[in-house]
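Exercise 3.2. Students should predict the tertiary structure of the chain below and write it as structure tokens, then compare their answer with the key that follows.

Predict this chain's 3D structure.
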Amino acid sequence: MTTIDRFFTNLMTSRLPATQEFYASLLDMVTCFESDWFVIMTPRDRPQFELGLIDSGSELIPANYCDTPRGSYFTFVVEDVSEIYDRAKSNGYKVIQPPRDEAYGQRRMLVEDPNGYLVDVSAPAASVRMA
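Answer key:
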């Protein structure tokens, strides 16, 4: 059986520079690869987690798959949701839900990225934090 050597998500965007800036400024992600049609970003301290950004006009994407998908969202687990909320507000990003404590033991906020993707930023309760 073939093993998976690497896994990451690609977001399709017609606003590549704005999307790159959104994830850099909101989540302190850094660019580890960049071309005019594709970018790979990682959290500054966790390079094994990757997020790809691809120009939705690229010939690599079939035309009927270029629209922003619905029915899914992205979750980023962080230490301090309030810090991310402050960044979102100071950058003028569209906050869908300000931070709040959820019944399942997490504090979470929702924000929209420049393409309309829903982004969940959560912090687990202290008793369930992962190293």
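Discussion points: Residues 127-131 have pLDDT under 50 and may be disordered. Helices lie at 16-27, 81-90.
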